[in-house]
Write a structure and sequence with these properties.
By secondary structure, the protein is α+β, with helices and mostly antiparallel strands. It has helices at about 75-80, 115-135, 140-145, 150-160; strands spanning about 5-10, 20-25, 35-40, 50-60, 65-75, 85-100, 100-110, 165-175. The model has no long low-confidence stretch (mean pLDDT about 90).
């Protein structure tokens, strides 16, 4: 028996049931559907341009679908704008636990060409800083901090004490295996 498809209004559980958009489907195929939204389009969220938030539909009732946060992504084109000639990109993946679930936070630091000892020190500092700042926090709180530069600015200052950095960005927060 084929279920009738219709439009579902998708709301975000984590943001006080703020409306994220609409999706077409039926009550069976809506569960676990992913919806990617521009972070600046979410009500009451102050974000710098570029971040995209992925939501996962958890439940369906009537013509409404409830979704929870899954991941945060900064598009590649934003990162590629940071890259210049004679610049090194240091990419670090920090595994941490947010709200009882395992997540990978991917951080990128842009520096002038540096010796390996400085790159290693920067990687260690990023790992220690992210683990310390995200301990005992929920996913939503960490994502809002990342979108509002509340994690990147203090990290940038800490890294400048090791080696001058041009930029520090959190490029992704996603579930870890």
């Amino acid at each position: 028996m084929k279920l009738e498809s219709s439009w579902y209004k998708v709301t975000a559980i984590d943001f006080g049931d703020a409306e994220m958009g609409e999706s077409y489907g039926n009550s069976d195929n809506m569960i676990n559907r992913r919806l990617v939204v521009n972070a600046s389009d979410i009500k009451d969220v102050k974000s710098k341009p570029g971040y995209k938030v992925t939501f996962n539909v958890d439940s369906v009732s009537g013509d409404n679908a409830k979704a929870s946060i899954l991941s945060l992504i900064m598009p590649r084109d934003h990162i590629s704008r940071l890259m210049r000639h004679k610049i090194a990109k240091i990419d670090v993946t920090v595994k941490t636990s947010l709200g009882g679930k395992k997540y990978a936070i991917k951080v990128i630091a842009i520096v002038n060409k540096a010796e390996n000892k400085y790159k290693t020190a920067i990687r260690k500092e990023i790992d220690a800083f992210i683990k310390k700042e995200t301990e005992n926090k929920e996913l939503k709180e960490v994502m809002l901090d990342a979108m509002g530069n509340k994690l990147q600015n203090p990290l940038h200052k800490a890294l400048n004490k090791i080696y001058p950095t041009k930029a520090v960005e959190i490029r992704m927060i996603e579930p870890s295996k």
